[in-house]
Prior knowledge:
- This protein is mainly alpha-helical.
- The chain has one domain (13-116): Arc Repressor Mutant, subunit A (Orthogonal Bundle), CATH 1.10.10.
- Helices cover 40% and strands 7% of the residues.
- It has helices at residues 9-27, 36-43, 48-56, 88-95, 108-111; strands at residues 34-35, 70-71, 100-101, 104-105.
- The strands form 2 sheets. Strands 1-2 form a two-stranded parallel sheet.
- The structure holds a DNA duplex.
Amino acid sequence: MPSKKSSGDKDIHNDHYFQKVFDVTCLIPEGKVSTYGAIADFLALGSARMVGWALNQSHRQEHFIPAHRVVNRLGELSGRMHFATPTLMQERLEKEGVIVVNDKIDNINHYFWHPRELAEY
DNA sequence: GACCTGACGCCCC
DNA sequence: AGGGGCGCCAGGT
Length: 121
């Protein structure tokens, strides 16, 4: 019965939405960036905050998650303080050719990538 | 169990 | 154009 409060499908969903966020993040092409909102919209999470919350745990994953390619809708590096050093996120982006000025991506729509662009999905 | 705080985003001023 | 308010969902206190 769905009405039962026992841990069931919802918990399973919660356990897997982390992995879904990781999967989508790994699909962002090098040199491109996506946003919390776009990923949340694509996965129908209902809240962009959940994407940030998931990425906050991404460093615990065995496989490397290119979390530096996810920024907020303005192109700001809002997650930079959660990397090993405050400048690591910017360094990784610049290494991929993304121009960052004042902790913000210059002309984000030039680099923006939406998960919908994937034919597989 | 109420309350606060986030790697967000939209609306309003 | 920039700043504040509120909704959103999950976790921590």
